[in-house]
Amino acid sequence: MPEGREYEAFPSHTVTYEIMTNVASEDKERSFTVLATPQEIEQLSEQGYLIREALFQGEQLERLRGALDEVEAAEMGEGVTTIIRSGQFGGWFPRYLMDKHPAFLELLDFEPMLSVARAVLGPFVRIRNAGGRVSYPGEPNQETHWHLHRRTIPKPLPAFFSFPHTIDCLIYLDELNEANGTLAIVPGSHRRIHDPLPADCYDDLPGQKVVRGPAKTCIIMHSNLWHRALPTRPDGEKRRLLILCYGPTWMRYSPFGVKPEDSLVDAYLDEADSETKELLGIGGYQ
Fold it and tell me: Which of 16, 46, 146, 223 is the most exposed place for a label (fewest CB within 10 A)?
């Protein structure tokens, strides 16, 4: 992990959680510095998204770009994966990135994202997925249809149903513009739990917002916010995106992809502290 990281550019406030339990424990209170204003956290809760246009400092952007390019070259060269050119999701979707390149481990305790996740999900948070998506100019169907990520809410709603609240951090390593492809979202749609979202829909939707931004833009959003990636055009550039998903510690890791046998995360766990293990899904079950 990089030493001495500073985040003065972000506003902050403190959140303190009292852990209500009758079990004897020294860990009955957890306080976190949240790198966002209370108003921004309220917007994330009500509208389902928060935009950061300058997420990284210094050379971190280039390290992450280089790392993703290395994983891409290795997996494409070995025939492990291919570019999707048809269907509802176009592009290349790498999985288990923290297990494949050490640069992605820098995101493990990256406070501008982690602290926001703790502000809306609570004190016990883990990383459910560290993956990405790359779309390519000149390739057909480099877009996605309208979709959401946690399609598990039944109707009628059971009395003790546990809502699948998770947070996706979409980290754009390249510019979000019309040529490279923008992102369309429908603010507040994460709360429309029983509204039907049409399948194979690529049209504009009422109330949608199209997000543009420079490289280093991060969109922190509820996983059930309706969204779609608009196409990368032939006159655009390759658009590299990292996707980091946070959930409660008791929620399992994302089922997509295959964990590499020589996992960097497994090696990292040997000397990790308790907080790091919790972020990686070991411990923190309440």
Answer: 16
Instruction: Indicate the SS3 state at residue 221.
Output: strand
Q: Name the residue range of residue 206's domain.
A: 37-148+164-279
- Tell me the pLDDT tens digit for each residue of 121-175: 999 999 999 999 999 999 999 999 999 998 889 999 999 999 999 999 999 999 9
Residue carrying structure tokens 């992450």: 64
> What's the Cα-to-Cα distance from 243 to each of 130, 132, 140, rounded to whole Å?
6, 5, 22
Total-model pTM: 0.94
List, as one string, the DSSP characters of 126-186.
EEEEEEEEEE-TTSTT-SB-SB-S-----SSPPTT------EEEEEESS-BSTTT--EEE-
CB atoms within 10 A of CB 236: 20
Q: Is there a domain that residue 155 lies in?
A: no
* Three-state SS at 19: coil
b/e map of 76-97 (b: 16 or more CB within 10 Å)?
Answer: eeeeeeebbeeebbbbbbbbbb
Count of domains for the chain: 1
Kindly state whether residue 106 falls inside one of the protein's structural domains.
Answer: yes
